[in-house]
Amino acid sequence: MSIALEEEGAYQSLQIVLQDAFGVVIGEGRNHAILAKLKPVISEFSLDSLEALVTELHKPGSSDIKNSVLQAITAHEDAWFAPKELFRLLDDYLLADMLDSGRSNYRIWVIGSGAGQLPYSLAMNIHQAMKQTHAKTKVIIEATDISDSFVEMAAKGMFDPASMEGISDASRNKYMEEKSGLWQVNDDIRSMIKFSTCSLVDDIENRGHYDLIICLNVLLYFSVPVKANLLDSFARLLDPSGILVAGLNEPVLAQNSNFDMVRHESGIFYRQRAR
């Protein structure tokens, strides 16, 4: 099925719908990229054009298709132990605080967990460090995505060979088991992660408190007011001196005064400002 790239009117209508419904901004000049991301959604809902998709988005009770559109637009490539900057920061800085002998627990929120490679990779690194240091900290990773199907798939911890890019043989053999041509994450790692659905445009204030929030390449899609509100919420959800890790192209300080930028040799992150 092909989508007519000349549907400029439908694309402009899509821009309006997404900004009104979610505060998501998709600029001009991204038509080809956005349409490519939306092709699977158009097929999933048995539509034949971008214009038909926009018509469905205008209908009452269209939350399923809206969520699918939002997930498709904000989704990023899933790979193991990526981005490398995050895992360097984890190894060189975050783990020492996380597994400090004075800590009894540590909560992490991974936003936009996709198929699960990122939270599982984090859990593998943390589990290995805990074994090496004999740490007693209880680390819980809450991994969320807007897509029910992605959450269900990620929670199973089953991966085909094509989705194993980036994982070393050592990590794969230590933390996964081959079953009928698929790779299953073991129970030790799966027990560290709680997968659930979550839309950032809904109320997120009741999620409890976190020590670390990882929100990579998500904020950049939202309008300035929505982004500012989300950063306010993150600041309230973080425990004192809690840490926010955002994408390299997602300026935080320009939108929020609750964080201080920390330039560590392994990467940049944001620490909740003392009040």
Describe this structure as you would to a colleague.
The structure is a single chain. The protein has 275 residues and is an alpha/beta fold. It has 2 domains: 8-74, Chemotaxis Receptor Methyltransferase Cher, domain 1 (Orthogonal Bundle), CATH 1.10.155; 84-272, Rossmann fold. It contains 10 helices and 10 strands. It has helices at 8-22, 31-44, 50-58, 63-74, 84-98, 117-133, 148-156, 169-175, 187-190, 224-237; strands at 105-111, 138-145, 158-159, 176-179, 182-185, 193-197, 210-215, 238-246, 259-264, 267-272. The strands form 2 sheets. Strands 6-2-1-7-8-10-9 form a 7-stranded mixed beta sheet. Helix 6 links the parallel strand 1 (105-111) and strand 2. Helix 5 (84-98) crosses helix 6 (117-133). The chain is globular and about 60 Å long. The mean pLDDT is 90.
Q: How is the biggest beta sheet arranged?
A: 7 strands, mixed
* Order of helix and strand elements from N to C terminus: HHHHHEHEHEHEEHEEHEEE
> CATH superfamily of the largest domain, please?
Vaccinia Virus protein VP39
Q: What is the count of β-strands?
A: 10
Unreliable residue stretches: none
Under CATH, the topology of the largest domain is which?
A: Rossmann fold
* Strand order within the widest beta sheet: 6-2-1-7-8-10-9
Sheet/helix structural class: alpha/beta
Helix content: 40-55%
Instruction: Count up the helices.
Output: 10
- Measured on Cα atoms, how large is the radius of gyration? 20 Å
Distance between the termini: 55 Å
Number of domains: 2
